[in-house]
Write a structure and sequence with these properties.
β9 and β10 form a beta hairpin. It is globular, with a radius of gyration of 21 Å. 39% of the residues are buried. The protein has six helices and 17 strands. By secondary structure, the chain is an alpha/beta fold. It has two domains: 13-73 and 170-350, QueA-like, CATH 3.40.1780; 77-155, Thrombin, subunit H (Beta Barrel). It has a nine-stranded mixed sheet. It has helices spanning 148-155, 196-204, 243-255, 263-273, 313-321, 324-336; strands at residues 37-41, 48-52, 65-69, 71-73, 77-82, 88-96, 101-107, 117-120, 125-132, 138-144, 181-184, 208-214, 237-241, 259-262, 283-287, 302-306, 347-350.
């Protein structure tokens, strides 16, 4: 256990379980992003308020900073056929290795032996399995004419989480309005609630906005499979914090303002880069930081986040910022109040 964690606790996977009726899993985004609800939790008093997401501005003050993850989701889900048999095969792009080679998740994996060729879009894109790596992921080398991103935009689909069964009418709705840097296999969903108008209002109030980037990998969807959660290994994800973002965050700390993180991905980025006093240097690299109860936060003061899956690493992170039992109690209230859960669902703000 590193010094970032307080005295070791015995935490079981079942400690993060809660009952969720299936009808509360949001299958579609709301017509307007900011129309979602907002549960506000005050850690000092334990009070819970039920608000609308646009009320988030009331909990932000001049000299605070809002930290957003400006990663952009790529249409990483490809449906193709095996060249030799014509059997259907699904490929999910996870991590780019070089110009033409990606680490991927292939279903069904048994059909994707080394040397297998997969045809997409009647031959507009052809992939060849060149290696099998950790956890059975496949390295695939792609051949195509033109620009890969343009071919992918034509043939690929948004890689929606498995619990979303509805087809997305507008793929931009699984994208934040401030998405800039392509590379994610999943959206930083806490940011989906923001509109450009709301962000402008927040800035007019004197709140500064810092942009960081963390490309969300498939680890977001991977279930924890060990009973002792401290034995779980997070997959690494690439992040970038530039000088401008570091300056905003550091000046906020110096002035006594609050660093308000939008989402667990922004939180993991900040906590990876922060020194013991919560200050940030411009940097980039890979992080596999796993935050669960007992973790001592260095940089993040407040969090805006969605309602997460039972027994997920995301729920564990939220439970680290507040109190596990009180978070589960808040989730119970959310179920009773019929909040919408998961990626297209409502939001929570922890003060």
């Amino acid at each position: 256990m590193t010094s970032e964690f307080s005295e070791e606790m015995i935490l079981k996977l079942s400690d993060f379980y809660y009952e969720l009726p299936e009808e509360l899993i949001a299958q579609d985004p709301l017509l307007k992003r900011s129309d979602s609800r907002l549960m506000v939790i005050d850690r000092k008093t334990g009070d819970i308020e039920h608000k609308h997401f646009t009320d988030v501005i009331d909990y932000l003050n001049p000299d605070d900073c809002l930290v957003i993850n400006d990663t952009k989701v790529i249409p990483a889900r490809l449906i193709g056929v095996k060249e030799d048999t014509g059997a259907s095969i699904e490929v999910l792009l996870l991590k780019r290795k070089d110009d033409k080679t990606w680490e991927t998740l292939v279903k069904p994996g048994k059909k994707a032996r080394v040397g297998a060729k997969i045809i997409f879009g009647d031959g507009k894109l052809v992939g060849e399995v060149v290696d099998i790596v950790e956890e059975g992921n496949r390295l695939i080398s792609f051949s195509y004419d033109g620009i890969f991103e343009e071919v992918l935009d034509e043939l690929g689909q948004m890689p929606l989480p498995p619990y979303i069964t509805h087809k997305l009418a507008d793929k931009n709705r699984y994208q934040t309005v401030y998405a800039r840097h392509e590379g994610s296999a999943a959206a930083p969903t806490a940011g989906l609630h923001f509109t450009n108008e709301l962000l402008e209002q927040i800035e007019k109030k004197g709140v500064r906005i810092a942009r960081v980037t963390l490309h969300v990998g498939l680890g977001t969807f991977r279930p924890v499979k060990v009973d002792n959660i401290t034995e779980h290994h997070m997959h690494s994800e690439f992040y970038v914090i530039d000088e401008a973002a570091a300056d905003i965050i550091n000046s906020t700390k110096e002035k006594g303002g609050k660093v308000v993180s939008v989402g667990t991905t922004s939180t993991r980025t900040l906590e990876t880069a922060a020194d013991e006093n919560g200050f940030i240097k411009a940097c980039s690299g890979w992080t596999d930081i796993f935050i669960y109860p007992g973790y001592n936060f260095k940089c993040v003061d407040r969090l805006i986040t969605n309602f997460h899956l039972p027994e997920s690493t995301l729920l564990m992170l939220v439970s680290a910022l507040y109190d596990r039992e009180k978070i589960l109690e808040a989730y119970k209230v959310a179920v009773e109040e019929k909040y919408r859960f998961f990626s297209f669902g409502d939001a929570m703000m922890i003060l």
